[in-house]
Specification:
alpha+beta; 7-stranded antiparallel beta sheet; 4-stranded antiparallel beta sheet
């Protein structure tokens, strides 16, 4: 069986040509021109093997760098496992098959070849790996299930007027460290992001809306000078930071990618938590349409200085814009 026959979908969240910071929520299922993929919480495509390999590499380097679960996360994990299993079977019945045996469930993951076992209550029991060359003991159900999809996952638990990130599986970070975020609330998590002040004042209302009225989808974007998925701020041992960060634009040999995150927000009312999915896409800037290249140029021109620094563009903006203008003129 082929890994996945579905093509990689295309998102371009800069249609206004203006750089803005806003929630930008759409109902999950909003038509962005990608057919059934727009209606799915998880998006599996022909790049699945590449994403799985990237996740394996991160976990092999140091799983504690990428997977963080606090005591409440462990407490909520069985119900989260049950939800993820149901969702995968519903969205991709051709790739996931569930078998019931007495008080156990066996999930056959045909893309990876893994066979996962759970109790009926969602407790993770173990895995028979599909590829012995990538075999590694999964730390639990969240780890095992996150390795079957291309998204990264994070769980925020709501308790009264408080909220807290209690579990995260982030093997494709975009210049942030999950260890700095675990146990923190929405405002603390987003404190380094310029322009988030107005959104932060409504953080609890936004989370409650996700819990009660979702699911939703939103997008974030940036510019990278490579298409590596993992840009953890701490490079692996022996790797030079300037080579790892993917933010060195070379005007003499220009290359850049529009890095888009499709972020889904799904309310799990049974555990009073919101599940965040983060799916990363890389689109070569040189192959964007002429209209998209010009809109990207306009958005970069309107990006505030603080945001340029946050996104690693400070000092590179002029050369990048000059290249973009040449691309637009050539079109």
């Amino acid at each position: 069986m082929a890994i996945v026959i579905e093509p990689v979908v295309h998102y371009f969240p800069l249609s206004s040509g203006q750089y803005v910071i806003k929630p930008g929520f759409y109902r999950l299922g909003h038509d962005f021109g990608n057919g059934a993929a727009d209606r799915r919480l998880f998006q599996l495509d022909r790049q699945f093997a590449d994403y799985r390999q990237a996740k394996h590499a991160a976990r092999a380097e140091n799983p504690d760098k990428y997977i963080c679960i606090d005591p409440d996360g462990h407490r909520l994990e069985p119900e989260l496992n049950r939800f993820l299993i149901r969702q995968l079977i519903a969205e991709y019945p051709g790739y996931f098959r569930l078998h019931q045996t007495s008080n156990r469930q066996q999930l056959d993951c045909l893309l990876s070849g893994d066979t996962l076992q759970f109790t009926d209550a969602g407790q993770y029991l173990g895995c028979r790996p599909g590829d012995e060359t990538l075999a590694m003991s999964y730390a639990g159900g969240l780890d095992a299930l996150a390795m079957q999809i291309q998204e990264d996952l994070a769980l925020i638990w709501l308790s009264g007027e408080e909220n807290r990130l209690c579990a995260i599986h982030l093997c494709q970070p975009n210049h942030w460290d999950p260890r700095d975020k675990i146990g923190r609330d929405f405002i603390q998590i987003h404190a380094p992001v310029p322009g988030m002040e107005r959104i932060n004042t409504h953080a609890l209302q936004l989370l409650q809306a996700c819990l009660q009225q979702g699911p939703f989808v939103r997008f974030a974007w940036g510019i990278a000078t490579d298409e590596r998925l993992n840009h953890h701020p701490e490079p692996p041992g022996g790797v030079a930071p300037e080579l790892w960060q993917g933010r060195e634009f070379d005007a003499a040999n220009p290359a850049a990618w529009l890095r888009v995150e499709r972020q889904t927000l799904y309310g799990l009312q049974s555990i009073n938590a919101v599940l965040f999915g983060i799916r990363t896409y890389h689109y070569p800037v040189a192959t964007l349409s002429a209209t998209e290249q010009c809109l990207l140029s306009q958005a970069l021109e309107t990006m505030p200085t603080a945001s340029q620094h946050y996104k690693g563009l400070a000092g590179r903006q002029r050369d990048l814009l000059h290249w973009l203008h040449n691309l637009c003129d050539a079109s």
